[in-house]
Amino acid sequence: MHTSLPEFRMPNDEQVHLAAEGFRLLADPTRIKILWALLQGESSVACLAELVGAAPTAVSQHLAKLRLAGLVKGRREGTYVHYSAANTHVRALLAEALFHADHANRDLPDHPGGDPAAHTYTSDPAASAT
């Protein structure tokens, strides 16, 4: 059935594995908060720890895992490392996940005929209601 669809392409095993690994690493509220903070701009471990309400050692461990997964990158400046989101794909992935969660939480309708990827998530519930 699917083989008759001209645009249908299954992802290869490596793509599926990497995507699953990325989702596994995002299945932690602290990591989502860290990534959201990093999407606003570069930050240090100490600043991130304060923002997400976690100990710096815990944030450092989360960042190490996120960095290995290619979701964040670090820039060394002397003895400090400044972290940022790896690329725009991270922003799209996290924004879509939060947008979906907001819709599910508020029982908002789907977007018939529209492209949900065209919507952006904001932490302001009134602004993301569309």
Total of DSSP H or I helical runs spanning 4+ residues: 5
Mean pLDDT score, rounded? 84
What is the CA-CA span between the terminal residues? 35 Å
Give the low-confidence spans.
none
* Structural class designation: mainly alpha
CATH superfamily of the largest domain: Winged helix-like DNA-binding domain superfamily/Winged helix DNA-binding domain
CATH topology of the largest domain: Arc Repressor Mutant, subunit A
- What is the CATH architecture descriptor of the largest domain? Orthogonal Bundle
**Radius of gyration based on Cα positions:** 17 Å
| Strand line-up across the major sheet | 1-2
Task: Note the run of SSEs as H and E.
Answer: HHHHEEH
The largest pleated sheet is described as:
2 strands, antiparallel
Which term fits the overall shape?
globular
Number of domains: 2
Share in β-strands: 5-15%
Q: Can you tell me the CATH class of the largest domain?
A: Mainly Alpha
> What is the number of strand segments?
2
Helix content: 40-55%
